[in-house]
């Protein structure tokens, strides 16, 4: 079975159609606090 989810989706499409943020958005959110402290 292949994973057919897109890695980079449109933010509006993802907000409307997905129940959770895509992996790329989750990883960016994890890195965000580190960048604020710099």
From TrEMBL:
Designated name of the protein: Ste24 endopeptidase
